[in-house]
Amino acid sequence: VKTMQRNHMGVVRELQAIHGNVDSLHQQGEALITDQPGNEGGVMDKLKDLDEQWSEVEEANEVHSDWLKKCVELAEFKKTFADLSDSLDVIKGEIESSCEEEGEDVGSVEALIASHREY
User: What is the pTM assigned to this prediction?
Assistant: First the structure.
């Protein structure tokens, strides 16, 4: 998951650089419309297509980012679950081993009761 996050951060940096190119294309398109008013319909269509495609890229990036966040949360949950499961196994083993002990007199029974209260 960490590797995927690093790769995604690289993609985000690349998208930021590309966004500057998209802005530059917009400026060039608007300048072209101003300089050559007869071609404005075609240029406007291309700028609209560019905006739509860029929006799709940004949406896909956002979906991927959300997916990665959920993967991180799942990995953290799995680690916490494994730690808890290991702790419970240790406690279960200690309880099972202490259940095998039997008191022989009042003093040893009281000692066993005291040790069980610790758990």
Answer: 0.62
